[in-house]
Amino acid sequence: MGFLFVQEHAHLYGRLVVAFIFGVIIGIERAKQGKFVGVRTHVLVCLGSCLVMVLSLLNEGPYRDPMRLAAQVVSGITFIGAGVIWRDRNNVKHGLTTAANLWISSCLGLVIGYGLYDIAIITGVLMFITIRVSMYFEKKGIVPDKSTLGNEEEEGD
């Protein structure tokens, strides 16, 4: 056992780097769209989630259960996501997609921390496709632009 346990934890360092890369990719895509939650937030969420999963995997003992800490990450990120959603009366104005992006970034970090790179790559690609295809549909008028939804006045107001 050396000072930093380099050999023993070398495979875990790669997981943290992959989580960092995923956070950067997701954050850049969101920043390019002018969203207020960009690179830093997505990197920190994805990396932090990965770190929690790595920590839970390193936990030894009779009560070792990596999913216990993972469940706490999901609960915590839900709280953060709720903070980016803006409402006006009974309508959600914006932030729902940002909250969903933070949530899935957190989940990606957990999956990467667990070592399931293939699942993370497929999920990341599907996430990117979903965002791009929905933007295309909105621009073409196939689906309504989310910025125009919920702006109708309700009767009796």
UniProtKB/TrEMBL annotation:
Transmembrane spans: 12-28, 37-57, 69-86
Origin: domain of life: Bacteria
Membrane topology: Multi-pass membrane protein
Swiss-Prot/TrEMBL keywords: Cell membrane, Membrane, Transmembrane, Transmembrane helix
Domain MgtC/SapB/SrpB/YhiD N-terminal: residue ranges: 16-138
Protein's UniProt keywords contain rRNA processing: no
Family (UniProt): Belongs to the MgtC/SapB family.
Name of this protein: MgtC/SapB/SrpB/YhiD N-terminal domain-containing protein
